[in-house]
Amino acid sequence: MSAAKSSVIPGFGPTLGFTLFYLGLVVLIPLAALLLRAAGLGWGQFVDAAFSARVLAAYRLSFGGALLAAAANVGAGLLVAWVLVRYEFPGRKLVDALVDLPFALPTAVAGIALTAIYAPNGPLGRLLLQAGIKVAFTPLGVVVAMVFIGFPFVVRTVQPVLQDLEVEHEEAAVSLGANRLQVFGRVILPAILPALLTGFALAFARALGEYGSVIFIAGNMPGLSEIAPLLIVTKLEQYDYAGATAIAAVMLVAAFTLLLLINTLQKWRHARLHGG
Fold first, then answer.
1. 63 and 25 within one domain
2. Residue 119 shares a structural domain with residue 180
3. DSSP per position, the chain
4. What confidence tens digit (pLDDT) does each residue in 86-137 have?
5. Is 1 part of any domain?
6. 197 in the same domain as 64
7. Radius of gyration over alpha carbons of the chain, in Å?
8. In degrees rounded to 5, what are phi and psi of residue 142?
9. Residue 237 is part of which domain span?
């Protein structure tokens, strides 16, 4: 089927041209300017600015924390989405609305709230500290903040897929002798895995670029609990535009590579399942 026949909006050429123009204006041109600014640095200056010991520690915390938070959100988000789709209970609509709260809550408010809760004198922080676990002003606090802001992405990505999943397939598997684990692994998981990967990618990307909610609970100690976005802002405040550009360029390339790998894996699995 040709593009003209499959297009819903008349005028495929103009709409495609506007799409590419808008995408280039809003996304591609600013990113290209960033990369060109980083390319203008000498190699030695770029390496010194982008790969010093302090910056490497910030990379590890930002990327490692984002990966851990996204992985945790995949498990918790799947469970919450399953409960919201498969069960009826009092307050279900309220719980469903609360899932979207991190979307609407200003990040600074979220950071202050998390710090108040998990600080050593906070209600949860005091109990955890008695068990030898300190959350606020540590890398663990960074992960907690990243989990909070990335959680809705997994739930809202998986929930529609679970709603469209026919229960009859699960019942047929049970009638053929499959246990619960086999039903989940062979019937449910293959159907929702693309949505889980998408939710993981969205939660990871959101956590990687998070700033407002993290800086309050992190403590921002260089080499320990300092994230890369904060380091970029610090460089800018010090008028070190070259250093900020170098760090931002490394984060951009690394994040794009990881997201590209996730999307490629998702498309490969979809093609494998559908014989493409």
1. no
2. yes
3. --HHHH-SSS-HHHHHHHHHHHHIIIIIHHHHHHHHHHHTS-HHHHHHHHSSHHHHHHHHHHHHHHHHHHHHHHHHHHHHHHHHHH---TTHHHHHHHHTHHHHS-HHHHHHHHHHHHSTTSHHHHHHHHTT---TTSHHHHHHHHHHHHHHHHHHHHHHHHHHS-HHHHHHHHHTT--HHHHIIIIIHHHHHHHHHHHHHHHHHHHHT--HHHHHHH---TTTT--HHHHHHHHHHTT-HHHHHHHHHHHHHHHHHHHHHHHHHHHHHHHHHTT-
4. 889 898 999 999 999 988 888 889 999 999 999 999 899 999 999 999 999 9
5. no
6. yes
7. 22
8. -60, -45
9. 50-273
Domain presence at residue 5: no
Spell out the residues 6+ positions from residue 199 whose beta carbon is closer than 8 angstroms to its own: 73, 74, 77, 153, 154, 155, 156, 157, 158
Q: pTM (2 decimals)?
A: 0.84
What are the φ/ψ torsions at residue 14 (nearest 5 degrees)?
-60, -40
Burial 223-262 (b: 16+ CB within 10 A, else e): eebbbbbbbbebbeeeeeebbbbbbbbbbeeebeebeeeb
Q: How far is CA 256 from the centre of its chain?
A: 13
Asked whether the predicted pLDDT for residue 2 surpasses 50, the reply is: no
Contacts of 156 (CB under 8 A, 6+ apart): 99, 100, 199
Residue 84 tokens read as 């919201």
Say if residue 90 is in the same domain as residue 27.
no
Same domain, 24 and 128: no
Task: Note whether 220 and 115 are within 8 A (CB).
Answer: no
Identify the pLDDT of residue 8.
Answer: 58
Of 249, 259, 211, nearest to 233 by C-alpha is 211
